[in-house]
Amino acid sequence: MKKLDHVDKQILQILQEDGRIPYTEIAHQLGVSEGTIRARITRLLQDGVFQFIIHPDPEKLGLHVQAIIGLTTRLGSQIKVAEELSKFSAVRFVGSFSGKHDLIIQACFHSNDELITFVNERLSQIEGIVSADVSLELKQYKDSFSFVQDDDVTLQ
């Protein structure tokens, strides 16, 4: 993979703001040709630097309960447990962490009852989970994928 340069980072910043922006507009903002933008974006996609996704708001989809669940797994079971958790549509994130929990998941549910069912009937059936620490999200202050920054870049 080629190292990202200043133009690549500028392109990523612009796309973070609006993934629907036309390549011609990006080219205009950066003072390069549309062909340059098209080639750069194609390369960045092929290299797996980013992907175009839709990031829906769970609340607007009726998923009013969002939970972060810290899991402790039996030694040697972490990968298998993570693979099982990844199969659930309610689970939007699974990660391995150091510290108190081996795995942390983020999951969205329509109701508290649905969360309780998930914990008591789904998680309890996964071989290798020792304990679960459920935290409900009370208020969300930020939910963003906009973290690419080029300190030398100031976009208008």
Written description of the protein model:
This protein has 156 residues and is an alpha+beta fold. The protein folds into two domains: 41 residues, Winged helix-like DNA-binding domain superfamily/Winged helix DNA-binding domain (Arc Repressor Mutant, subunit A, Orthogonal Bundle); 79 residues, Alpha-Beta Plaits, CATH 3.30.70.920. The protein is built from five helices and four strands, in the order αααβαββαβ. Strand 2 and strand 3 form a beta hairpin. The C terminus is likely disordered.
Give short descriptive properties of this protein.
156 residues; disordered C terminus; Alpha-Beta Plaits; single chain; four-stranded antiparallel sheet; 4 strands; 5 helices; alpha+beta; ArsR-like_HTH; Arc Repressor Mutant, subunit A
Provide a concise account of the structure shown.
The protein has 156 residues and is α+β, with helices and mostly antiparallel strands. The protein is built from five helices and four strands; from the N terminus they run H-H-H-E-H-E-E-H-E. The protein has two domains: 6-46, Arc Repressor Mutant, subunit A (Orthogonal Bundle); 58-136, Alpha-Beta Plaits (2-Layer Sandwich), CATH 3.30.70.920.
Number of domains: 2
User: What's the pLDDT, averaged over the residues?
Assistant: 92
Portion in beta strands: 15-25%
Largest sheet: 4 strands, antiparallel
CATH architecture designation of the largest domain: 2-Layer Sandwich
Work out the helicity level: 25-40%
Question: Rough shape?
Answer: elongated
Number of strands: 4
Task: Supply the helix-strand structural class.
Answer: alpha+beta
Radius of gyration, Cα only, in angstroms? Answer: 20 Å
Strand order, largest beta sheet:
2-3-1-4
